[in-house]
User: Which sequence fits this backbone?
């Protein structure tokens, strides 16, 4: 039988499978005499260790995968892994099973792969994790130990993979396995690192950090040090992470991971100038890395180093990297320089994608703030025509920008037109509800919010907005409280909801509860409206000095806040402290 093109294609696709070679006998000479006895049945044609049926089955699996029929691909590969006991086929079957989340097939094929490739550490890793996921922790530990005893560099990635994206039960089982291995191999750095990762995944940052600090990593073990720094940052102890990383960078100045971690930690610590220095060194060491170039541009923006930021952003445009983000931020630089025309030019160059809507918003805001509302409307209409998928969001941008510039009626007209085109759109209805409040039309506000809630009863934003409005503008306090409490159940840490909870309790006379919720809200989100509310509650409780402190701090950030000024005037008789 000749080798068909289909079989050759199958062999090209099956990268992990064994090589093949034809093993047929040479053909008989043309002049050979006819046999005197009937010939025996021909054995199946074999290519390497695979029969033709196996090859066709695997080819079918590959073609099915190309057509997104992963169920067929998985079924064929699992069957052939069992049939052939070939490590390449088993590995391919395992990868497909992992991709599909087919845990039982992943376990079955990982065990075949591990058994038939005993020196392959990836195979042993796969079996250990699949067994742990199945709750077979003693068996999992056996494979972990094989990895631990493997020759050469066994890497930390096995232990990292063990910890990542697993369920609590699996992590608990892995932890027990690690602890038993640590009893057998005390002080083993890989096990300590893996256990710390599992503890971090379980939300036990303090315990993970303590474990790493009791068994410091060697100087050349980067991963444990990076984890330790990350844990410190997560525990709001980033100031301790900086010297740790700085010392490591001094010992290994060319290590990109360490310097990048230091730079990012400095940003999180708001040490922008120091972070800029580290990013500059990184870019010098990695001149072709445009991710670093973009990060450095952003750090320069944060440091208000406009000239430097502009230079890096223009470099990105010339290099064809992060082009839309570069134009968006070049527009920001132009705005900071009070050059609205240049800002408009840059924003107009931003294409569709993540940065498109922010660029449209900035254009609209610049034009409307400078008395060019018709031009803003013309540009947004053109954008809607060119990009109909963004039409609803572009209507929102137009309406909200008009409203923010005290053009309430034109904003209302835009929303009416938008809702005629997109009836029932929740974002448009919500925006119209907020605008209705500005117009003093509480009935329309309630209709729009209830329209949203009729179709989305768990829309926390609509629940909170309606509850707060009823608490602030009506005496329907019981109804308001029920709405806000439901929003709180859905989003317990949302500062807007906490503010509403505080306000409805104040309206009901529950001053202790009101103060508690408002303090939580202000801690999470130091907003002028929340400060006005907390100050009023403190005033009502006889804590006038603290109330004035709260208002004073808020006025430093927003001296023209109408709610702060009106609250001060109502309670103290003056808009000034």
Assistant:
């Amino acid at each position: 039988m000749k080798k068909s093109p289909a079989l050759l294609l199958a062999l090209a696709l099956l990268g992990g499978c064994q090589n093949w070679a034809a093993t047929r006998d040479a053909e008989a000479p043309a002049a050979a005499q006819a046999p005197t006895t009937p010939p025996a049945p021909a054995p199946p044609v074999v290519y390497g260790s695979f029969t033709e049926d196996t090859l066709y089955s695997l080819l079918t699996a590959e073609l099915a995968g190309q057509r997104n029929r992963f169920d067929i691909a998985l079924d064929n590969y699992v069957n052939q892994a069992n049939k052939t006991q070939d490590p390449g086929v088993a590995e391919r079957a395992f990868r497909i099973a992992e991709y599909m989340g087919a845990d039982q097939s992943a376990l079955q094929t990982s065990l075949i792969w591990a058994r038939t490739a005993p020196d392959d550490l990836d195979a042993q890793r796969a079996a250990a994790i699949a067994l742990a996921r199945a709750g077979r922790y003693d068996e999992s530990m056996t494979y972990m130990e094989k990895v631990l005893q493997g020759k050469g560099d066994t890497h930390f990635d096995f232990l990292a993979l063990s910890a990542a994206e697993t369920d609590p039960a699996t992590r608990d089982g892995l932890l027990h396995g690690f602890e038993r291995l640590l009893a057998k191999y005390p002080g083993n750095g890989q096990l300590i690192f893996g256990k710390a990762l599992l503890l971090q995944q379980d939300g036990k940052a303090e315990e993970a950090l303590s474990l790493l600090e009791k068994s410091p990593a060697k100087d050349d073990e980067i991963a444990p040090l990076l984890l330790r720094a990350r844990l410190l940052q997560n525990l709001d102890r980033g100031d301790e992470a900086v010297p740790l990383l700085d010392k490591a960078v001094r010992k290994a100045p060319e290590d990109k991971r360490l310097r990048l971690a230091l730079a990012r930690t400095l940003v999180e610590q708001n040490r922008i100038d120091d972070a800029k220095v580290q990013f500059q060194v990184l870019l010098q060491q990695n001149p072709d890395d445009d991710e670093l170039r973009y990060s450095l541009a952003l750090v320069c923006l944060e440091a208000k180093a406009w000239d430097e930021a502009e230079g890096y952003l223009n470099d990105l445009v010339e290099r064809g990297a992060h082009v839309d983000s570069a134009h968006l931020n070049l527009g920001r630089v132009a705005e900071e320089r009070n050059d609205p025309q240049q800002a408009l030019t840059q924003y107009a160059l931003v294409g569709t994608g993540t940065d498109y809507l922010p660029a449209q918003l900035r254009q609209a805001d610049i034009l409307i703030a400078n008395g060019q509302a018709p031009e803003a409307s013309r540009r947004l209409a053109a954008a809607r025509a060119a990009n109909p998928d963004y039409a609803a969001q572009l209507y929102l941008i137009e309406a909200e920008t008009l409203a923010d510039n005290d053009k309430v009626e034109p904003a209302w007209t835009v929303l009416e037109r938008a809702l005629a085109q997109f009836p029932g759109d929740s974002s448009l209805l919500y925006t119209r509800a907020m605008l209705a409040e500005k117009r003093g039309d509480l009935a329309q506000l309630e209709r729009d919010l209830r329209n949203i809630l009729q179709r989305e009863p768990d829309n926390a934003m609509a629940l909170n907005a309606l509850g707060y409005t009823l608490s602030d503008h009506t005496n329907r306090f019981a109804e308001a409280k029920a709405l806000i409490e439901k929003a709180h159940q859905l989003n317990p840490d949302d500062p807007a909801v906490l503010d509403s909870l505080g306000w409805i309790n104040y309206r009901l006379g529950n001053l202790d509860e009101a103060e508690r919720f408002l303090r939580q809200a202000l801690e999470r989100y130091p907003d002028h409206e929340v400060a006005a509310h907390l100050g009023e509650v403190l005033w009502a409780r006889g804590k006038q000095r603290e109330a004035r402190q709260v208002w004073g701090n808020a006025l430093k950030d927003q001296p023209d806040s109408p709610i702060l000024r009106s609250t001060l005037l109502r309670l103290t008789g003056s808009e000034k402290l």
